[in-house]
Amino acid sequence: MELNAAAGLHSVLERMFTSSQVSIHSGWEEVLGEGYGTAQFALRHAEVIGLFSRTVSRLNALPESSRTRTRYSRYVPAWYGAVIPYQAWNVNSHPASSVISQGDLDQLGGFADWIAERDRDLGEGIPDAAMGRLREGLDDWKVLLAQAALPESLRDQIAAQVSHIEWLLSQIGLFGPQPVIQGASSLVGTGLQALAFAPAFGKKIARASAALTAAIAIITAPVAAGNNLYAELETMGENIQELAERGDAPKELEKAAPEGPATVPDTHTDAIDVEYEELDDAESTGSDR
């Protein structure tokens, strides 16, 4: 389900190159829609770094003898320097447009076009069914944050996760589904912590987590599998809440949840990764563009 990371990175850096902002940090504020120095700014800029990383990984997946790899590898330092500029960010002598040259930007666009021509199995974003489940799960969490008695630090963590996933969904054409899958998986894990503090809300927490997990399954597997998992997790939540209402919550839920970010069992499936099949014959015969 990988989108063209190079195309997404090109779009982001093109916004910087065409920006009229007088400093690099104000340019990134404009592009990312968050104030420089905030936690949300850092999260969003990290997603741009992720685009760069995926672009370079795609390039490095080519055979070492590939002329395409040799040619575009020369521009990797310039692309990196655009994402993490070497210049001072907060001085007017370094406008946003100075992070990359037209030539280096065009080379990135050329590599994005090369990927589009060769990789016919690129994903098209997130299916409507999965998008609906994601919206449902995020809305459920917003309601939960207003109702459940959670520690302030955990409440703030969940609120930040919800906000970031919503932003990623609004930028799906740039970043693709991978960061959404990662963010949703992380939020499901945080939900396990929330169960420890609010078992009486077990059904609602499980419903929110089920919607997110079903979305992940729909993105990476047939829709039917995602819907079945959704129903199973809802049932689990009902059982947890019933135990809590009877005062028989499992002992594990009576213990304080561990501090720090939560994780869930590896949700990796072969469908998440895009397997790139190189045209070795074309490379060896010199038909590489």
Can you describe this structure in just a few lines?
The chain is an all-alpha fold.
Mean pLDDT: 78
* Strands, count: 0
How are helices and strands ordered from N to C?
Answer: HHHHHHHHHHHHHH
- Rg value: 22 Å
Strand percent estimate? under 5%
Low-confidence stretches: 222-226, 247-289
First-residue to last-residue Cα separation: 25 Å
The helix tally amounts to 14
Which key terms come to mind for this protein?
14 helices, mainly alpha, disordered C terminus, 289 residues
Description of the molecule:
It is built from 14 helices and no strands. The longest helix has 23 residues. The two termini are 25 Å apart. The C terminus is likely disordered.
List the helices and strands and how they pair.
Layout (H helix, E strand, L loop, with lengths): L4 H13 L6 H9 L6 H22 L6 H7 L2 H8 L18 H17 L9 H20 L4 H19 L1 H4 L2 H20 L4 H19 L2 H23 L5 H4 L25 H6 L4
Helix pairs in contact: 1-3, 1-6, 3-5, 7-8, 7-11, 8-10, 10-11, 11-12
